[in-house]
Amino acid sequence: MGSLRFLSFPCEMKYFFLLSICFCSTGYFAQKSPDQLMNDWHKAAASANFNAYFEVTHDHFVFLGTAPGERWTKTEFQRFCKPYFDKGKAWNFIPTNRNWNYNADSTMAWFDEELKTWMEGCRGSGVLTKTGNEWKISYYNLTVLIENEKIQKFIKLRRRK
Q1: CATH number of the domain enclosing 113
Q2: Tell me, what's the pLDDT at 31?
Q3: How far apart are CA 145 and CA 88, in angstroms?
Q4: Predicted model pTM
């Protein structure tokens, strides 16, 4: 008899109930995909949204920057970034191409991406890990691209003091 009670609900309630089931079952409330997470991460930096930028990073996050010695834990990188974000001016890296790979059970994803930046062409690569339904950035490596035929000039430039 309990199942017949549903039929006695007003029509609007039945539609609300059915729509709720549809939204939940289609993943409407599901966590962001790794690709969307990375796009939003870059947008958070461009808009200097410190909290949005760091809330998607793993507690054991590591960031490798372009300069020698730029290897930061999450806490160190937050300390480095905070003054830039507080001024409302961080960085605007625009991904133009991204390639993804996943482990067998889709709990780890790694990628490489081409970026348009103020430094001209750059490449980012990283690792995301999934705990439950939530993806987090565990590792990110930012590199400046340089053509092989220009490397000798670059080496000479770096040796200047």
Answers
A1: 3.10.450.50
A2: 74
A3: 27
A4: 0.78
